[in-house]
Amino acid sequence: MDVREILGPKEQFIQGDTSCVYGALLAGCRYFAGYPITPATEIAEGMARLLPLIGGTYIQMEDEIASMGAIIGASWTGKKAMTATSGPGFSLMQENLGYAIMTETPCVVVDVQRGGPSTGQPTRSSQGDVMQARFGSHGDYEIIALSPSSVQETLELTFRAFNLTEKYRVPVILLMDESIGHMREKITIPKRITIANRDMVDIDIEEYKPFRTGYLHATKIPEFAQFGSGYKTFISGLTHNAEGFPVTDDWRVHRDLVLRLSKKITDNIDDIYEVDSKFMEYAEVAVIAYGISARPALAAVKMARALEKEVGYVNLKTIWPFNYDRIADISKQVEKIIVVEMNMGRIHHYIKEAAEGRCDVELVNALGGMVPAPRDILELIK
Amino acid sequence: MIATREIRDKYLRHGMMPTILCAGCGNGIVLNAALRAIDSLKKDINKMVFVSGIGCSSRLNGYIKADGIHATHGRAIAFATGVKTSEPELDVVVFTGDGDCAGIGGNHFIHGIRRNIDLTVIAINNYIYGMTGGQTSPTTPPASITTTTPYGSFEHSFDLAELAKTAGASYVARWTIAHPLQLQKAIKKGLENKGFSFIEILSPCPTSYWRINRVRDFEKIYAWYKENTINIKKAELYPEKIKIGEFQNIQKEEWTDQWKKLIERVKK
Questions:
Q1: What local confidence, expressed as pLDDT, does residue A216 receive?
Q2: Which of B25, B29, B133, B189 minimizes the number of CB atoms within 10 Å of its CB?
Q3: Which of B105, B98, B94 is nearest to B203 (CA)?
Q4: DSSP-derived pairing of the beta strands A144-146 and A318-320
């Protein structure tokens, strides 16, 4: 059966978690491995229900370590693969997430954030994992993380996450939060969608080196040969050369590999980075937020504008890589930046760094599952 | 019988030589047996994937000219599950060791068995964490000296073949590197079995286990594996010896077959 047929009417009133499932299936996801965890369980449930109807594969693994391992294995047979979890499970995934980065395995990891550290508040919302998404695995690397602020945006960004992971061959993290995951809103399934697929290798088997770049395009991203295609691809988490063979005692091989893995992201930041800006043209104050926090941020901006304040709104749909230049530009224009987030001020710190003292950078945050209130933001705008 | 030279040219990656293995290591015998088993079944190597974790035994798939995953420590069966469940047409073989399989990977091991996924798991048991220099592992025999049990180990050890059998693996066998032909036959049976196959091989780590336990002559080590093991059929007569042979060979519904049936059922 066709995916659209399975998903049903074009307009629906559904949860963020279900919207994530829809976005993934529309993007071509046909493999899901996961482990139940609040507040991400509904994603696994949706996948278990829908994947067999379109010939895909769903498997519930014994833990999140295995879930991450299974989607990497599935990705190498050419499938678009995904897993979904929350903070504690995301911690367990960090080991194999690093493996996916090192082996350039396309895959999407959804983290529906809840309060932490540790088991924390399973049913409460948080944005406490933004740094875990960036630095959770060991070693030097760059990663892509997107954060939706509505149920509709969840569908669109899940879709985009797949396109980016296919294009850049790096795991893409979808940082949802409990509020977005469990909130019900109306969605419209877009009529036309553009699907990106990884570049498949098309040269003589004898000449193919799995981690040599530039066969098709002058990029830092190697072309892909799926398992079973005869290319005899060997992948390892060890530092490897273009052939994929472990080379652990040559500093140049390691340096070149780490630089390429990072630069394939940072060189393309303009393609990856996406923000939703409103009223920024004459803004004297900018309110920057992401995820659920972008909702009270926009409400406060609208309230302030009704009071004739020149306030703009920036929703960071892409959290990582962090775009210092874009934030620096904002800091040159405005007198004050207000950062709204549900943690101790993780992105606030980055924005302060990018602003380099050119403007005030203030934080409105909330902990414990409370979403920041528009009036608290409004107070700082005044 | 196919010559070793032919096996080498047909299946091994020359660019990966020399191997990392020490003199007297049993891993080469296991690799040889596995490749001969594959060759005797006339398997299409392009439709095989070799998955491993971390450790000396887990380096074996790197030497095979085929698709392969050298995964993270203990996770080989999880990665292999992803490969097999997403593309059931591929034959998936796992190389692992006692620490990788039963220590850090114990949970993936028992759950792979529970699902009866069609994997052939070749576990080389050398009683030790060899790559890191000889620390005690879940299979270290009591009273052994290792670098982390300098006064002798006292923990009870796992019997991997019994563990696999009890967990419900559809094919289970244990041999030693002193039984290469039987080993080859067991791997062949494992590859033919549609379900989770577990082949344990007792194999020496002369560098990190036997040297520190004061057996430094490879002939003596080799003899130890012959003298201290007994075929499972005669095991009752020699209860003190380690059982070798075929522990289990049963038919059981396999995961990817069941998933295929489920898809057919729900699509209607």
A1: 73
A2: B133
A3: B98
A4: antiparallel
> Which of B47, B68, B82 is facing A228, going by the closest CB pair?
B47
Contact A72 B82 (CB under 8 A): yes
For residue A263, what are the CA distances in angstroms to A238, A256, A275? 19, 10, 21
Q: Which long-range contacts (CB under 8 A, 24 or more apart) does B147-155 make?
A: B147/B208, B147/B212
Q: For A193-213, write each residue's pLDDT tens digit.
A: 999 999 999 889 989 999 998
Q: What's the residue count for chain A?
A: 382
Q: Can you tell me the distance from the alpha carbon of A44 to that of A178, in angstroms, rounded to the nearest whole number?
A: 15
Phi, psi of A316 (to 5 degrees): -80, 95
Which residue of B lies nearest to A51 if distances are taken between CA atoms? B263
The H or E element that residue A250 is part of is none
A79: Cβ–Cβ under 8 A, 6 or more apart, which residues? A30, A31, A57, B86, B87
Indicate the burial class of A171 (C-beta count within 10 angstroms; 0-12, 13-18, 19 or more).
Answer: buried
Residue in chain A closest to B117 (alpha carbons) equals A59
The secondary structure of B226-258 as a DSSP string is HHTEEEGGGGGG-TTSEEEEEEEE-----HHHH
Residues 211-240 of A with CB under 8 A from B: 227-238
Token match 């009273």: residue? B143
pLDDT score at A215? 76
- Tokens 């060899």 -> residue: B130
Taking the C-alpha atoms of residue A32 and residue A109, their distance in angstroms, rounded to an integer, is: 10
Contacts of A308 (CB under 8 A, 6+ apart): none
Partner-chain contact A62 B107, CB within 8 Å: yes
Please report the pLDDT score of residue A141 as a whole number.
97
Q: A248-262 pLDDT, tens per residue?
A: 999 999 999 999 999
DSSP A213: B
B123: closest CA among B70, B71, B60, B64? B60
Cβ–Cβ < 8 Å for A66, B111: yes
Rounded-to-integer distance, Cα A117 and Cα A88, Å: 8
Q: How far is CA A212 from the centre of its chain?
A: 26
End-to-end Cα, chain B, rounded Å = 50
CB of A259 within 8 A of CB of A147?
Answer: no
Q: Exposed, middle or buried, B114 (CB in 10 Å: 0-12/13-18/19+)?
A: middle
Q: pTM for this one?
A: 0.97
